Request: fold
Amino acid sequence: MSHLDHTAFVNSRRDERNLGHHTLRAYAQDLRTFARFSRAHQLTDPLSKDDILAYHRHLRDELRAKPATIERRLVTLKSYFAWREDRNSALPSPFADVRISVRIPRRLPRPVDRDILRAVLRAGERANAARSTRGAGDSAPASQDGITLLIIKLLIVTGLRISELTNLKVRDVSPDGSQILVNGKGSKERIVFVPNRELRQEFRHHCQMRSRHGSIAAPLFLNTEGRRLRSATFRKRLRALSKRLGIEPHLTPHRFRHSAATLLIEEGIDIRMVQALLGHANLKTTEIYVRVSNHALRRALERVDVLSELRS
Reply:
């Protein structure tokens, strides 16, 4: 397995499936891990079923990789060998007769508690109010703290992935700020809505400011240097905000996404509508938020303990 093969495979996934940067980077990392194993064990083509089983044991017993990591590494490798066989039938895939079951513990998402969400929003609004008092008018560009708060609100309301939000361009938002055209995983487009009137006005104002200072193809959110705000930068902002407010575990964009889904289901929104909003390909991915809501309900009922109250 040459380095050129790795590069060609990753490039083909990028060109044919238009996969995102993080997915492509994970593919490359998975293939490099197997390449190191191949060199250490002097594997040569054609590889066998036993070679794959040995690699699975290596991941599990020697590297002590997590089950989800093991599954991803094997799925990437299987995809690579299928791609290679399609290009050269003289190199059959060693996965033809391999059956490996990796049990992945099902962990519940960790949404942000409502009280913490309220504290975050209040802190942001206080900062915005202080800025207005210092004389920044409506026509002034938003501060970075203001943009951070706006993104947090959008994450809570829309359930967008942070990469989907930071990749938005000015043209992706409707003139009234109520709809966003999102390019999701696998280049699947979907429309999400901004139902809150106050947030819609704030969002529209930001979009108008951006359109006046750039083309409709310009990034919607910028960093302090005037370039597109990157997901990693926003994550750092959330860590700093968490530290400032004493929030543990620290805030992450994906926790806001979990919050969006959980809040909607708790408010009675149909699960298939939540699935469409989040861009989940499989309903099972969305169903876990029903379990989160049920878990919260059980904790609340245990705290109340109605029967004990009646007996007292």
